[in-house]
Each structure stands twice: as C-alpha cells, then as structure tokens.
Amino acid sequence: GSSVPDHSLEFIGKKIVDKCGGLPLAIKALAGLLRGTQDIREWEAVLHSRLWESPKDKTDVIPALWLSYNHLPSHLKRCFSYCAIFPKDYKIDRKKLVLMWMAEDFLLSTESGKSIEDTGDKYVQQLVSRSFLEPMDKSYVTMHDVMHDLAEFISGDFIARQEDGQASGFSERARHFSFYADFYDRISKFEALHKTQFLRTFLQLYESNGNSKGRYFLAQRVTTT
C-alpha cells in the first residue's frame, strides 16, 4: 500500500497547515478530512489540489473549506448545503434537522438494526467531526459563519430566507424557504414567494432561537394560496 511513517505525513501536514494561513477552522476542517487515513496519496492530493487556487473574484469561501467540502460523500454534501435554510448563528435542533433531511429523502438506507433516525444522527456526527457543524449541547448544533457562507454559496438559488422582514436570495428556482415568525403573519409578508414554482420547504423560525414557546398565527390564505 501507500502507508508511510508518521514523520512523512507530519511533513505534508505542516505544509497543508501553512496553506491554511493560520485559520483554526480551516485547519480543523482538513484535520477532520485526513483523520484516520495513512495513505500518503490522499494527503498529497489535498496538498496539491487546484482548489487552493480558487479565484477570489468568484467567491470569498476559504479554499481549505472548499477542499473539505469537495471530499465529503455526496449524501453529506446535500445535508450540509441544506443547512443554509437556517440563519447565521441559529440554534439548530438536531432531531428536527434529521426529520427535515428525512422529508427530503437525503438519508440513505439504514444498516441492519438501525433506524432511519439513527442514520440521520450519524450524519450529524460526521458533519460535526469535520467541523461543518458545531455542537452546542446534546440537542443542538450551529454553524460557524464561514461554513454558513459556504453552504449558502453551494445551495445558490435553491434556498431563500426572510430575515428582518427582508427577502434574501429569492428566485423562481427556490425550493426551500424559511422565515422568522411574527405574532400574526399576513399573506403580504410572502408576496415574493408568488414567483416560485417548486417550493418544497416552508419553515417557520422563532426569534427565541429555536424555542417555539408562545403563540404565533399564520393567515389562512398563506397556506391555501
């Protein structure tokens, strides 16, 4: 095989760290990618990847994060980019996130004896281990701002949010939409949605950052139009 002494991997690892420009999150993300592999070809592939030279005029995403994302399995890529439906710094309920992934059919068939929820929880753990999500406690995760920027860039027009009464990223191609609930939400709040044709997710969020205690009302016309 291509396994090599630790000191050779250490040499390559130091060069990769240098390319990260001292950014802790970038280093953590790539450490999560390379953890557990002793194949020098994989380490060299990261070191010499063309993604380090990503043109800055196209995106402000840190190249190391592009690299980490590029090496995710396709099912984790879908799950991660979907998280752009949440605003920055939002406290994401792990169980609800798994249910949302289930609704989108993002979870692959389960191992024998495992439930589909177990599979979803495993995905959360894998994204946490690679620093795409950050644990808050046993029940909640969040996203670092630059990871959120990456998820937004990848999801493109397919995700739209409404924050502070302002539409963000609305397009007729939007598939997933989230908004902060007011005490009473009228149909006028959602006028920008009229041009969307393939909306799949209509997600109500709460200013209390994940806590839905209290009463909120949605005009009937919103759900029947």
From TrEMBL:
Keywords: Plant defense, Repeat. GO terms for biological process: defense response to other organism. Pfam families: WHD_DRP (PF23559). It comes from the Eukaryota. One of its GO terms (molecular function) is ADP binding. Residues 85-151 form the Disease resistance protein winged helix domain. This is Disease resistance protein winged helix domain-containing protein. The keyword Transcription does not apply.
